[in-house]
Amino acid sequence: MNVSALTGNDNYFEDFTPGEVIKHARGKTVSELENVLITNLVMNTAQGHFNEHIMEKTRFGKRITFGGCTASLIIGLASQDTSENALAELGLDKIRFKVPVCHDDTLYAYTEVLAVRDADREDAGEVHFKHWGVNQNNDVVFEGERRTLVKRRSHWGNQ
Amino acid sequence: MTDTFLTKAKLRPKGHFYEEFELGQVFEHHWGRTLNESDNSLFSTLTIQANPLYFNAEFAKAHGHKGIVLNPMIVFGTVFGLSVEDLSEAGGAFLGVDDLTFEGHVYPDDTLTACSEVINKRESEKNPDVGIVTWHTQGFNQKGERIIEFKRTNMVSKKGAGIL
Protein backbone atom coordinates (compact mmCIF):
# COMPACT_ATOMS: atom_id res chain seq x y z
CA MET A 1 0.00 0.00 0.00
CA ASN A 2 1.24 3.47 -0.95
CA VAL A 3 0.45 5.06 2.40
CA SER A 4 1.44 8.63 1.59
CA ALA A 5 -0.84 8.74 -1.45
CA LEU A 6 -3.90 8.44 0.79
CA THR A 7 -3.34 11.62 2.79
CA GLY A 8 -2.44 15.24 2.02
CA ASN A 9 1.04 16.61 1.56
CA ASP A 10 0.59 19.96 3.35
CA ASN A 11 0.19 18.72 6.91
CA TYR A 12 3.37 16.90 7.92
CA PHE A 13 5.27 17.99 11.03
CA GLU A 14 7.58 20.20 8.93
CA ASP A 15 4.56 22.20 7.68
CA PHE A 16 3.41 23.58 11.04
CA THR A 17 4.70 27.00 12.15
CA PRO A 18 3.87 28.42 15.59
CA GLY A 19 1.54 31.41 15.30
CA GLU A 20 -0.20 30.14 12.14
CA VAL A 21 -4.00 30.37 12.38
CA ILE A 22 -6.16 28.16 10.17
CA LYS A 23 -9.81 28.53 9.21
CA HIS A 24 -11.03 25.04 8.36
CA ALA A 25 -12.98 24.74 5.15
CA ARG A 26 -16.11 22.85 6.23
CA GLY A 27 -18.78 23.54 8.83
CA LYS A 28 -21.42 21.13 10.09
CA THR A 29 -24.99 21.75 11.16
CA VAL A 30 -25.68 19.84 14.36
CA SER A 31 -28.85 17.77 14.40
CA GLU A 32 -30.25 14.77 16.24
CA LEU A 33 -28.00 12.69 14.01
CA GLU A 34 -24.93 14.04 15.78
CA ASN A 35 -26.13 14.94 19.26
CA VAL A 36 -28.64 12.23 20.10
CA LEU A 37 -26.78 9.47 18.30
CA ILE A 38 -23.38 10.25 19.83
CA THR A 39 -24.86 10.87 23.31
CA ASN A 40 -26.62 7.48 23.27
CA LEU A 41 -23.74 5.69 21.51
CA VAL A 42 -21.35 6.57 24.34
CA MET A 43 -24.02 5.81 26.98
CA ASN A 44 -24.24 9.35 28.31
CA THR A 45 -27.48 9.09 30.33
CA ALA A 46 -28.13 12.83 30.86
CA GLN A 47 -31.59 13.22 29.31
CA GLY A 48 -31.12 16.95 28.73
CA HIS A 49 -29.41 15.77 25.52
CA PHE A 50 -32.22 13.49 24.34
CA ASN A 51 -35.54 14.35 26.03
CA GLU A 52 -37.13 17.30 24.22
CA HIS A 53 -40.26 17.19 26.40
CA ILE A 54 -38.42 17.71 29.69
CA MET A 55 -36.16 20.39 28.21
CA GLU A 56 -39.16 22.44 27.05
CA LYS A 57 -39.76 23.27 30.72
CA THR A 58 -36.25 24.68 31.22
CA ARG A 59 -34.78 28.08 30.34
CA PHE A 60 -33.19 26.45 27.28
CA GLY A 61 -36.56 25.33 25.87
CA LYS A 62 -34.99 22.47 23.92
CA ARG A 63 -32.32 19.79 23.99
CA ILE A 64 -28.69 20.88 24.51
CA THR A 65 -25.90 19.21 22.56
CA PHE A 66 -23.52 17.03 24.60
CA GLY A 67 -20.17 18.81 24.99
CA GLY A 68 -18.33 15.62 24.00
CA CYS A 69 -20.22 15.73 20.70
CA THR A 70 -19.33 19.38 20.15
CA ALA A 71 -15.65 18.73 20.97
CA SER A 72 -15.55 15.70 18.64
CA LEU A 73 -17.10 17.69 15.79
CA ILE A 74 -14.67 20.59 16.16
CA ILE A 75 -11.68 18.26 16.30
CA GLY A 76 -13.15 16.33 13.36
CA LEU A 77 -13.66 19.49 11.29
CA ALA A 78 -10.05 20.46 12.09
CA SER A 79 -8.60 17.00 11.51
CA GLN A 80 -7.79 17.10 7.79
CA ASP A 81 -5.57 20.15 8.26
CA THR A 82 -4.09 19.21 11.64
CA SER A 83 -3.92 15.42 12.07
CA GLU A 84 -4.55 13.64 8.77
CA ASN A 85 -0.90 12.62 9.04
CA ALA A 86 -0.88 12.01 12.79
CA LEU A 87 0.39 8.82 14.39
CA ALA A 88 -1.43 9.42 17.68
CA GLU A 89 -3.48 11.85 19.71
CA LEU A 90 -1.56 12.62 22.90
CA GLY A 91 -3.88 14.78 24.97
CA LEU A 92 -6.34 17.62 25.46
CA ASP A 93 -6.31 20.49 27.96
CA LYS A 94 -8.18 23.67 28.88
CA ILE A 95 -11.34 22.43 27.13
CA ARG A 96 -14.14 24.94 27.77
CA PHE A 97 -17.76 25.03 26.67
CA LYS A 98 -18.77 28.69 26.51
CA VAL A 99 -22.24 28.80 24.94
CA PRO A 100 -24.85 26.02 24.64
CA VAL A 101 -25.12 24.31 21.23
CA CYS A 102 -28.60 23.27 20.05
CA HIS A 103 -29.93 21.34 17.07
CA ASP A 104 -29.73 23.37 13.84
CA ASP A 105 -26.72 25.37 15.05
CA THR A 106 -23.86 25.24 12.55
CA LEU A 107 -20.33 24.75 13.85
CA TYR A 108 -17.07 25.91 12.28
CA ALA A 109 -13.53 25.18 13.47
CA TYR A 110 -10.43 27.37 13.77
CA THR A 111 -6.93 26.39 14.87
CA GLU A 112 -3.76 28.13 16.00
CA VAL A 113 -0.43 26.32 16.04
CA LEU A 114 0.91 27.04 19.52
CA ALA A 115 4.17 25.08 19.44
CA VAL A 116 6.12 22.35 17.69
CA ARG A 117 8.70 20.16 19.37
CA ASP A 118 10.75 17.02 18.82
CA ALA A 119 9.25 13.78 20.02
CA ASP A 120 10.97 10.72 21.47
CA ARG A 121 10.99 9.13 18.01
CA GLU A 122 12.75 10.54 14.98
CA ASP A 123 9.99 9.90 12.40
CA ALA A 124 7.47 12.28 14.05
CA GLY A 125 7.15 15.42 16.14
CA GLU A 126 4.66 16.84 18.58
CA VAL A 127 2.38 19.68 17.50
CA HIS A 128 0.48 21.71 20.09
CA PHE A 129 -2.76 23.24 18.78
CA LYS A 130 -5.37 25.62 20.12
CA HIS A 131 -8.84 25.03 18.67
CA TRP A 132 -11.93 27.21 18.64
CA GLY A 133 -15.42 26.16 17.65
CA VAL A 134 -17.87 28.89 16.66
CA ASN A 135 -21.55 28.83 15.72
CA GLN A 136 -23.30 30.56 12.79
CA ASN A 137 -23.15 33.87 14.70
CA ASN A 138 -19.40 33.55 15.38
CA ASP A 139 -20.09 32.98 19.09
CA VAL A 140 -17.26 30.89 20.53
CA VAL A 141 -18.99 27.73 21.76
CA PHE A 142 -15.84 25.68 22.38
CA GLU A 143 -12.14 26.21 22.93
CA GLY A 144 -9.34 23.93 23.93
CA GLU A 145 -5.77 22.79 23.42
CA ARG A 146 -4.59 19.54 21.88
CA ARG A 147 -1.29 17.72 21.54
CA THR A 148 -0.80 15.47 18.53
CA LEU A 149 2.09 13.30 17.29
CA VAL A 150 2.51 14.14 13.59
CA LYS A 151 4.61 12.29 10.99
CA ARG A 152 7.70 13.94 9.54
CA ARG A 153 7.73 14.18 5.76
CA SER A 154 11.42 13.23 5.85
CA HIS A 155 10.44 9.74 7.02
CA TRP A 156 6.88 9.23 5.81
CA GLY A 157 6.52 11.51 2.75
CA ASN A 158 7.24 8.76 0.24
CA GLN A 159 6.02 5.62 1.96
CA MET B 1 -60.84 7.67 34.91
CA THR B 2 -57.14 8.19 35.55
CA ASP B 3 -55.02 5.10 35.15
CA THR B 4 -54.09 4.02 38.66
CA PHE B 5 -50.49 3.22 37.74
CA LEU B 6 -49.91 6.92 37.06
CA THR B 7 -50.91 7.87 40.60
CA LYS B 8 -49.38 4.81 42.29
CA ALA B 9 -45.97 5.01 40.61
CA LYS B 10 -43.00 6.27 42.64
CA LEU B 11 -40.20 7.94 40.70
CA ARG B 12 -36.82 6.22 40.89
CA PRO B 13 -34.54 9.25 40.47
CA LYS B 14 -31.06 8.97 38.98
CA GLY B 15 -27.90 10.92 39.69
CA HIS B 16 -26.34 12.72 42.65
CA PHE B 17 -26.82 16.26 43.89
CA TYR B 18 -24.05 18.69 44.89
CA GLU B 19 -24.57 17.99 48.61
CA GLU B 20 -23.87 14.27 48.06
CA PHE B 21 -20.29 14.71 46.81
CA GLU B 22 -17.38 14.57 49.26
CA LEU B 23 -13.71 15.24 48.55
CA GLY B 24 -11.89 11.96 47.97
CA GLN B 25 -15.08 10.01 47.27
CA VAL B 26 -14.54 7.32 44.60
CA PHE B 27 -17.10 5.98 42.12
CA GLU B 28 -16.69 2.74 40.17
CA HIS B 29 -19.00 3.50 37.27
CA HIS B 30 -21.65 1.15 35.94
CA TRP B 31 -21.92 -0.99 32.82
CA GLY B 32 -18.61 -0.83 30.94
CA ARG B 33 -18.78 -0.93 27.16
CA THR B 34 -17.19 -3.01 24.41
CA LEU B 35 -16.57 -0.66 21.50
CA ASN B 36 -16.83 -2.42 18.16
CA GLU B 37 -15.75 -1.48 14.68
CA SER B 38 -19.15 -0.17 13.62
CA ASP B 39 -19.36 2.13 16.67
CA ASN B 40 -16.01 3.55 15.70
CA SER B 41 -16.67 3.86 11.96
CA LEU B 42 -20.00 5.57 12.56
CA PHE B 43 -18.52 7.98 15.12
CA SER B 44 -15.47 8.77 12.99
CA THR B 45 -17.37 9.43 9.77
CA LEU B 46 -20.14 11.37 11.53
CA THR B 47 -17.57 13.72 13.05
CA ILE B 48 -15.75 14.06 9.68
CA GLN B 49 -12.53 12.59 11.04
CA ALA B 50 -9.81 12.62 8.36
CA ASN B 51 -7.08 10.38 9.82
CA PRO B 52 -7.33 7.00 8.03
CA LEU B 53 -5.97 5.20 11.13
CA TYR B 54 -9.57 5.36 12.41
CA PHE B 55 -11.38 4.00 9.32
CA ASN B 56 -8.92 2.24 6.97
CA ALA B 57 -7.67 -1.11 8.30
CA GLU B 58 -4.94 -1.57 5.67
CA PHE B 59 -3.60 1.93 6.33
CA ALA B 60 -3.57 1.19 10.06
CA LYS B 61 -1.72 -2.11 9.46
CA ALA B 62 0.89 -0.23 7.39
CA HIS B 63 1.53 1.78 10.58
CA GLY B 64 2.15 -1.28 12.73
CA HIS B 65 -1.37 -1.73 14.12
CA LYS B 66 -3.31 -5.00 14.00
CA GLY B 67 -6.17 -3.18 12.30
CA ILE B 68 -8.28 -0.08 12.71
CA VAL B 69 -7.48 2.07 15.74
CA LEU B 70 -10.35 3.44 17.84
CA ASN B 71 -10.85 7.17 17.40
CA PRO B 72 -9.59 8.67 20.69
CA MET B 73 -12.67 10.90 20.87
CA ILE B 74 -15.05 7.92 21.08
CA VAL B 75 -12.81 6.52 23.81
CA PHE B 76 -13.09 9.84 25.68
CA GLY B 77 -16.84 10.04 25.03
CA THR B 78 -17.50 6.52 26.25
CA VAL B 79 -15.45 6.81 29.45
CA PHE B 80 -17.23 10.12 30.05
CA GLY B 81 -20.63 8.63 29.21
CA LEU B 82 -20.23 5.77 31.67
CA SER B 83 -19.55 8.32 34.43
CA VAL B 84 -22.61 10.48 33.85
CA GLU B 85 -25.19 8.79 36.06
CA ASP B 86 -22.88 8.92 39.08
CA LEU B 87 -21.49 12.39 38.48
CA SER B 88 -23.63 14.75 36.45
CA GLU B 89 -27.04 13.33 35.57
CA ALA B 90 -28.81 15.38 38.26
CA GLY B 91 -28.25 18.45 36.12
CA GLY B 92 -25.85 21.34 35.57
CA ALA B 93 -23.68 22.57 32.74
CA PHE B 94 -20.57 20.70 31.61
CA LEU B 95 -17.92 23.41 31.97
CA GLY B 96 -14.68 21.85 30.84
CA VAL B 97 -11.91 19.25 30.82
CA ASP B 98 -8.26 19.67 31.81
CA ASP B 99 -5.13 17.50 31.77
CA LEU B 100 -6.56 14.83 29.48
CA THR B 101 -4.01 12.20 28.44
CA PHE B 102 -4.55 9.44 25.88
CA GLU B 103 -2.34 6.63 27.16
CA GLY B 104 -1.82 4.28 24.25
CA HIS B 105 -4.01 2.97 21.46
CA VAL B 106 -7.38 1.28 21.89
CA TYR B 107 -8.77 -1.21 19.36
CA PRO B 108 -12.19 -2.46 18.27
CA ASP B 109 -13.58 -5.10 20.68
CA ASP B 110 -11.68 -3.65 23.62
CA THR B 111 -13.92 -3.25 26.68
CA LEU B 112 -13.77 0.02 28.56
CA THR B 113 -14.61 0.67 32.20
CA ALA B 114 -14.42 3.91 34.15
CA CYS B 115 -13.96 5.26 37.66
CA SER B 116 -13.79 8.75 39.16
CA GLU B 117 -12.68 10.53 42.30
CA VAL B 118 -14.03 13.85 43.60
CA ILE B 119 -11.05 16.23 43.67
CA ASN B 120 -12.72 19.61 44.22
CA LYS B 121 -16.12 21.09 45.12
CA ARG B 122 -17.15 24.66 45.73
CA GLU B 123 -20.16 26.97 45.73
CA SER B 124 -21.00 28.93 42.59
CA GLU B 125 -20.58 32.67 43.10
CA LYS B 126 -23.29 33.46 40.56
CA ASN B 127 -25.93 30.77 41.03
CA PRO B 128 -27.07 29.55 44.49
CA ASP B 129 -28.92 26.59 42.87
CA VAL B 130 -25.69 24.87 41.84
CA GLY B 131 -22.21 24.04 43.05
CA ILE B 132 -19.11 23.36 40.98
CA VAL B 133 -17.48 19.92 41.21
CA THR B 134 -14.29 18.57 39.63
CA TRP B 135 -13.61 14.85 39.26
CA HIS B 136 -10.54 12.90 38.18
CA THR B 137 -11.86 10.26 35.78
CA GLN B 138 -9.88 7.26 34.53
CA GLY B 139 -10.71 4.74 31.80
CA PHE B 140 -9.32 1.20 31.59
CA ASN B 141 -9.30 -1.62 29.02
CA GLN B 142 -10.11 -5.28 29.69
CA LYS B 143 -6.51 -5.94 30.80
CA GLY B 144 -6.78 -3.27 33.47
CA GLU B 145 -4.44 -0.95 31.60
CA ARG B 146 -5.31 2.71 31.95
CA ILE B 147 -6.02 4.15 28.51
CA ILE B 148 -7.22 7.66 29.39
CA GLU B 149 -7.41 10.07 32.30
CA PHE B 150 -8.81 13.58 32.64
CA LYS B 151 -10.23 16.13 35.05
CA ARG B 152 -13.82 17.18 34.37
CA THR B 153 -15.61 20.17 35.88
CA ASN B 154 -19.40 20.59 35.99
CA MET B 155 -22.02 22.69 37.61
CA VAL B 156 -24.04 20.29 39.78
CA SER B 157 -27.61 20.92 40.87
CA LYS B 158 -28.34 21.25 44.57
CA LYS B 159 -31.19 19.26 46.13
CA GLY B 160 -34.56 20.75 45.34
CA ALA B 161 -33.17 23.31 42.90
CA GLY B 162 -35.14 21.72 40.09
CA ILE B 163 -32.71 22.56 37.32
CA LEU B 164 -31.66 20.27 34.55
Arithmetic mean of pLDDT of chain B: 96
Distance between the termini of chain A: 8 Å
Find the CATH superfamily of chain A. Hotdog Thioesterase
Number of helices of chain A: 4
Number of strands of chain A: 6
Classified in CATH, the superfamily of one domain in chain B is Hotdog Thioesterase
Name the overall outline of chain B: globular
Describe this structure in words.
The complex is a heterodimer of chains A (159) and B (164). Helix content of chain A is 21%, strand content 33%. Chain A is of the alpha+beta class and 159 residues long. Chain A has one domain: Hotdog Thioesterase (Thiol Ester Dehydrase, Chain A, Roll), CATH 3.10.129.10. Chain A is elongated and about 60 Å long. With 164 residues, chain B is α+β, with helices and mostly antiparallel strands. Chain B has a domain of 101 residues: Hotdog Thioesterase (Thiol Ester Dehydrase, Chain A, Roll). Chain B contains 4 helices and 6 strands. In chain B, strands 1, 2, 3, 4, 5 and 6 form a 6-stranded antiparallel sheet that branches. The longest helix of chain B has 16 residues. Chain B is globular and about 60 Å long. The chains are: A alpha+beta (159), B alpha+beta (164). Chains A and B meet through helix 1, helix 3 and strand 3 of A and helix 2, helix 4 and strand 3 of B. Strand 3 of chain A pairs antiparallel with strand 3 of chain B.
